[in-house]
Amino acid sequence: MAPQHVTTILLAEFDIDQGSVLTHQYPNDITSDNHVLAELMLPDGAHLRPADWTIFFLNRAKPAPWNGNKTLTDDDTVENPLLYVLNLVRTNHDASIRRGAAVKAMAICTTHQYLHVYKPVLLLALENYFKDPSIEVLKALYESVNSMELSPPDLSPYERMILRSSDNKELFIEKFEAAHSVSAGGEEASTNRADMANGLGIVVGQTPLKGNRDGVVTSTSVPAAPAPGMTRNRDCQFYETKVVYDGIKIPIRVPLSINSEEVGEFSLIKLITTFSPANPSPNPHPFHAHLDSNGPNTHPIMLLMNALLTEKRIIFLGNGHPAGDVANFVLAACALGSGSGGVLRGFPERAYPYTNLAGIDHLLTCKGFIAGVTNQLFEDRTAWWDVLCNIDTGKITVSKDITPMPSSHGGHYDDVRSIPLFTGTPGSQFNSKYDNGDNDFMNDILNSIQAHYGEMVIRAKFQDYVARFVQLASQYEEATYGQTTIGLNRTNTPESIKYLGTGLVFIDEASRAREIAANSSRIEGWRSTTSYKYLQEDHKTWLASRSIRCMDVKRIISLLKLPKTLSPQDVSTLFKGFLQNISTDEQIIEFLSSLPLSQGGLFCIAYGLFHPLASVRNDTVAFLNRLNQHPTGRVYIKSLNRFERNTYERLAREHALQEENSIKQHHYARFSASAGSISSA
């Protein structure tokens, strides 16, 4: 059975007598609450503008086993998946009808988070419905979209991390080759490539290396021929296909590098610039330890980040704006809090990209909702929200009715307690200069935006920020409770002792203690949230499935970027560890995912080429040779600067020559020994 890309097509229209009406649900009804659904499809003020795009989610209620509910089975997930709804509402002015205008909305319900790719076909379908208002238009749209060929290469989370950090259009080209060969019936001929592409644990680095005419060291085991599938997919960042609707071939480009919590089209840069004042002033609201991680000087974006992490009720208000505007801010906020969708999860489940007063009862039952509204009334009802972000003024307001911090209490690891961020009297809290690094981070973000860095670079910085927060939280738990279930330690990675331990790298113990103390309150606030519970599950699964089990790669890379902290013997131990523990396809991909190409790639590994110890230089060459025999590793090798590449190529030739001479000497010794034994006989 062909995969179902779209589950339902919805059609709503405004009736002058009945108001918003849900006219059609094709092929089956997905809800009985037709009035609320019609109100979402026809947002406030839709009649005042020619068109508006909105997004909302359905089937968001999911049982959580840690709340005493039953665990979801695979059948439950298939039958009741979270649906992403892309909605287009249009107003056609016509003097011949009552009120002089017809307002209709059509929506596509899909399980695909990249629902924005359906905008062109939805635009054509709604135009056709205005011409012929019949259910046949919905049927034609449903059949056309579900007939779309969609079989993109299956990329692992690590491969997506590598892909999104690079602008190389041929990265993972072997994945397209394998998929193309299988679809063309050449499965047997492409076995080797498919094995490598699918990560079956093939050990690479066993074939000899040769130098070509240009002196570049390449492997003889993997051909570098262009992929036949690239005539169709010219950019491996996307999967290119098409939808044929009403005789029109509509090109579709499906992004391959998006993370699970990134939904639709949004701009994190726009979110940041909107709520970053040119002349920041101290926050006027009473201090709240979950939100004000930097005291009264907490940057508004950091306040929003803290509200997202600690599951506060958040509203984005755009009075009189198109519903699509506030929806994009909500989607960007989900990406912000989840670390660009690559660290934490659970944010879309509590997101309402657009809602209105008709859905307020359901909204208020959701813990920690993230909602977009266009009605000014929400701003006055401070009991409905904890944090309000006004996209007109660029101001973030903390509600006077926000739940105060619970009283501190000691206790067990499973307890959730609050630890005051500041010490001293309440009056001295705001006079203390307490900087945990967030302001420096935001200065770096704003400078990067002013320097015209791209959207993916900014997302990568926030992904690193949230990942560091999680690592810091795991160290806080170990220091406070003596155990953690969200990070690496000596218990789950005992061999890491040989490779300089696990966890974040700090300049000294004092800076470590200071940063943990500065973040303790928001860490405690986060520990009671759904995203924390999800992370515990995800970390347990990752520990069982990870391919590199004996070392903390991120910690080692951080140490190598601070070479003065390592002794020559430590460096030698680490590079020998790379050679001993990183050899399979899965291990190489996992290792490279910790070295984003946008942040220098292998430059910290290439330092080993210039190390004073000959053993380190030899191990570095051997490890780079191994990476060079892997298709993704070759891309990383090519990204080295000219000086590093020339050094690598020279040392690799010398290394190969030494091995060749060693083999010749070994054969000569054996021949001499055998000749001597014959002559003596």
UniProtKB/TrEMBL annotation:
InterPro entries: Actin_polarity_regulatory, Afi1_N, Tripartite_DENN. Residues 7-517 form the UDENN domain. PROSITE patterns: DENN (PS50211). GO terms for biological process: actin cortical patch localization. One of its GO terms (cellular component) is plasma membrane. This is Docking domain of Afi1 for Arf3 in vesicle trafficking-domain-containing protein. PANTHER family: ARF3-INTERACTING PROTEIN 1. Coiled coil: none annotated. It holds the Pfam family Afi1.
